[in-house]
Write a structure and sequence with these properties.
3 helices; 4-stranded antiparallel sheet; alpha+beta
Length: 104
């Protein structure tokens, strides 16, 4: 089973304004990028399941020159709201690390 952590040398999450969170997945090289950058596993359904985001508001951008993808989603409540658990979204990426990319 290949996971995000296996194929990425760096994964981070951060605010993309008060209403959005973004993830950057930097693949270890062009081979890993080519194989997994458009994987349906890393799509809106995953972000909905892990973070409760509206799948219609999930965006994914490939950046081939950096062997990375950016996945952004609209927060379910604004940054700093009463239910906020991670003000800067800096720890959100952890849930992605163990996501299996290959079928079992």
């Amino acid at each position: 089973m290949t996971t995000v952590d296996d194929v990425c040398h760096h994964v981070r999450s951060k605010n993309a304004g008060p209403y959005w969170v973004t993830f950057d997945l930097f693949f270890k090289g062009p081979d890993e990028f080519a194989r997994y950058h458009d994987s349906p596993v890393l799509g809106p359904d995953l972000i909905h399941r892990l973070f409760g985001a509206d799948p219609a508001l999930v965006k994914r951008f490939a950046v081939p020159s950096l062997n990375m993808i950016k996945i952004s989603y609209a927060r379910t409540s604004p940054q700093g709201g009463i239910v906020e658990r991670d003000m800067h979204a800096g720890q959100q990426f952890v849930r992605l690390l163990d996501v299996a990319l290959d079928p079992a």
